[in-house]
Amino acid sequence: MSKGLSIFIGLLLTGIIVHAQSDSLRVVKAKWTSKKLAKGVYWKSVHIESNELFSANQNINIIEVLPHNKRVQLHIVHSDSLEKTSQLGQTTHALAAINGSFFKMRGADPDYRPDLKGVPKLEPSKLDHNRSVVYLRENDSLIAPNIPGKEPVRKRNNQGSIAINGSDFFIVAGDSLNLQSENSIKARDVMSTGPLMILNGIELFIPNDKFCTDRHPRTAMGEKADGTIVFLVVDGRAKEAAGMSIPELQHLMKWLGCRDAINLDGGGSTAMYVKGQPYRGVVSYPSDNKKWDHEGEREVANVIVITQQ
Q1: pTM of the entire predicted model
Q2: Are 104 and 5 contained in the same domain?
Q3: 249-304: per-residue pLDDT in tens?
Q4: Would 136 disulfide with which of 23, 143, 146, 170, CB 3.0-4.6 Å?
Q5: Residues 93, 17 share a domain
């Protein structure tokens, strides 16, 4: 390698590192608004303007559940008929809710369609049932298994799982050789999703495809080293908020202190509900109506809710 090329590469890497450090400081030092929802449960939000995060405008909502908080419970809730995140939040009397993992829609999904070849076609009377395309267990009852593609290997949408036992939460990597390894996870509620972004503090490989590299609204969950559980929603598809790629989301979760983090369904499905807030509790800017408002929720098949004891 020539001396000139070495210098150029060195300067390029230095620029990338400096830019990443600037983004991380912008997140940490941002003027987050914070509201206590219950003992040990906090809702935080920030709107970053002037293209100051990942060279773009961003709008972020977070709910943190502090560790050892027995006053609240986490639940995975599914809907056979498809309902909005806010509706499922209200029905379950939740303090807060976010959309869950990937599912079959009535029509073509504009964001992402997993490979469904080889899956038996459902009868018309069953089209609205068990709409999850990934493993889903609710209250110790299997709602849906992982749906295989052409080959019995894991796709990005089931690389890992979130597992819930009341107020206990953990993220588990999927067994690459066993699509139904989730059956052995000892938890009341289990939901597969992905990509898995961070595990035991290590940022994992992210596939280089449009689903991951394009910017979209994103939903994620994570856990900090002290046990704090993080629910995160990033808005997108608007000049006010660009959304994030999966690598950007991965960096964000790391900067927020997450030891483990996993991506959930995003795009038009992304939404956050907080009890008692205006707009029927919708605090994010769901994008399915292509407007910067709180009215664009998509009906989804499952959500993760926080309820008070």
Answers
A1: 0.87
A2: no
A3: 999 999 999 999 999 999 999 999 999 999 999 999 999 999 999 999 999 999 99
A4: 143
A5: no
* 207 SS3 class: coil
Under 8 Å between Cβ of 5 and 243: no
Q: Which residues, other chains included, contact 121 with Cβ-Cβ below 8 Å and sequence gap of 6+?
A: none
Rounded CA-CA distance 78/102 in Å is: 11
Place of tokens 């107020």: 167
Which residue's structure tokens are 């020539």?
2
Contact 195, 156 (CB under 8 A): yes
Residues 17 and 158 in one domain: no
One domain for residues 14 and 64: no
Q: Which structural domain range is residue 2 located in?
A: 1-30
Nearest to 114 by CA among 60, 179, 199, 172: 179
Considering only CA atoms, which of 163, 199, 169 is closest in space to residue 182? 163
H helices present in the chain, as ranges? 3-29, 85-91, 210-213, 246-255
Q: Tell me how many domains the chain contains.
A: 2
User: How do 72-84 and 258-263 pair as beta strands?
Assistant: unpaired
